[in-house]
Amino acid sequence: MTPFGEHLRKLRQERGVTQKEMANAIGISPAYLSALEHGKRGQPSWPMQQRIVGFLNIIWDDAEELQRLAQLSDPKVSINTSDLSSQATLTANLLGKHIAGLNDHDLRSIQDIVEKSLTSKNGS
């Protein structure tokens, strides 16, 4: 599952809408909507995101969050480390090979490290 798919499913269920109802309303198949929710499809296009936001009648802040999650929800990530250090290549490969064996706590710890580093570099 992707962050986008998980959030989309939550929003849809909170509104008491079935996948079939939502899919028909936004012009996609229920199978495609299911694939989006389960992370079997990549990031939805900008127009698709807008149709989802419109259908769910999401307020501005929630729409921005859904769009932010869409940007972070590519289930087939590729990392090019060709111009980076050997440490970057090693880290990317270790993560790629072993991510399935990490629990949510470990993954959150890695995420926290990355976010903290980005925040300190951006001066925030």
What value does the Rg take, in angstroms? 17 Å
CATH superfamily of the largest domain: lambda repressor-like DNA-binding domains
Question: Which series of helices and strands comes N to C?
Answer: HHHHHHH
* Total number of beta strands: 0
Average the pLDDT over all residues and give the rounded result: 92
Question: Architecture of the largest domain, according to CATH?
Answer: Orthogonal Bundle
- What CATH calls the topology of the largest domain is 434 Repressor (Amino-terminal Domain)
Query: Oligomerization state of this entry?
Result: single chain
Number of helices, where a helix is a run of at least 4 consecutive DSSP H or I residues: 7
Our measurement of the CA-to-CA distance between the termini, rounded to an integer number of angstroms, reads 30 Å
Spans of at least 5 consecutive residues whose pLDDT stays below 50 are: none
Number of domains: 2
Q: Structural class, from secondary structure content?
A: mainly alpha
Using the alpha-carbon principal axes, give the shape.
elongated
Characterize the main sheet: none
Q: What fraction of the residues are assigned to beta strands by DSSP?
A: under 5%
Name of the level-1 CATH class of the largest domain:
Mainly Alpha
What is the helical fraction, as a range of percent? Answer: 55-70%
